[in-house]
Write a structure and sequence with these properties.
Number of helices: 12
Oligomer: single chain
Largest sheet: 5 strands, antiparallel
Length: about 260
């Protein structure tokens, strides 16, 4: 697959200068200790490259780990065949695990950050009746950008929105032929000006862990740690959990939410 300028933080102007670093193609090649012609062929998808060379290019562009992963996804894999339109099915044992997490909000996310499963605590935390939503609308990013209640829920909504966009960019790198993903990006670009603007920034991220602040309509302000549990049997499915340290105000309010559930 050809590396497009925006894929690695490049601009499309005549000088082909890097948005983030202000480097010309010749300067990136020099920093990576390769010829300009070789770098051009890699960038245009006309030549593969060993991981050592890609690592040198990543260092030259000062990419973080998510950027490095994105670069590898784009450059080392040939164009994949389009996936069939078969719906993704949630892993049965992960659904059982969701049911067992009585006090911990948890969502099972699949490709495109589709919501494949949830427990009552997650529905209460997200103020969302997932069961009432049509299956194709059960998407975490869609909720963050289009549901007013979910949008109000996040105290740091802009940070959350930017992270969602960056995660979708990584999804595109994994499967550029995903028609439903293309439709989702197109729909959100039309509906939300922030999504459209941030999508053109071409930032990437990976699901990992972090801290989220919520302004919940029932229990008030609550700060939770979120973490990602990967499914070894199906890397396209990941369990996202939210928790708080015992003895903290946030933990008490999480337990209060549990009582409401």
């Amino acid at each position: 697959m050809a590396l497009q300028p925006e894929d690695v933080g490049l601009s499309r102007d005549s000088g082909r200068r890097r948005r983030a670093q202000g480097l010309r193609r010749e300067e990136v090649a020099a920093l990576a200790v390769i010829s300009t012609d070789y770098y051009a062929r890699i960038e245009q998808g006309r030549r593969g490259a060993p991981w050592q060379t890609l690592d040198s290019i990543a260092n030259a562009l000062r990419l973080d780990q998510a950027g490095r992963d994105y670069l590898l996804q784009l450059s080392m894999h040939p164009p994949a065949r389009p996936r069939r339109g078969r719906a993704q099915r949630a892993s049965p044992h992960l659904l059982r695990l969701l049911d067992d997490l009585a006090t911990t909000p948890a969502l099972l996310l699949g490709r495109r950050m589709d919501v494949l499963g949830w427990n009552p605590m997650a529905a209460a935390l997200m103020v969302t009746d997932f069961a009432a939503l049509p299956v194709r609308q059960r998407n975490y990013v869609r909720l963050v950008f289009t549901d007013p209640a979910v949008r109000r829920l996040y105290s740091d909504w802009e940070q959350t929105g930017r992270l969602c966009v960056a995660l979708l960019h990584m999804e595109v790198a994994r499967d550029p032929h995903d028609r439903r993903l293309t439709e989702l990006v197109g729909e959100l670009s039309i509906q939300d000006v922030d999504f459209r603007r941030w999508w053109t920034d071409h930032q990437v991220a990976i699901r990992n862990r972090g801290v989220k602040q919520f302004d919940h309509p029932d229990v008030g302000e609550i700060t939770l740690d979120w973490d990602t549990l990967a499914c070894v049997g199906d890397p396209d499915q990941q369990l996202i959990t939210w928790s708080a340290k015992a003895g903290t105000t946030s933990h008490d309010r999480l337990m209060a939410l549990r009582q409401r559930v």
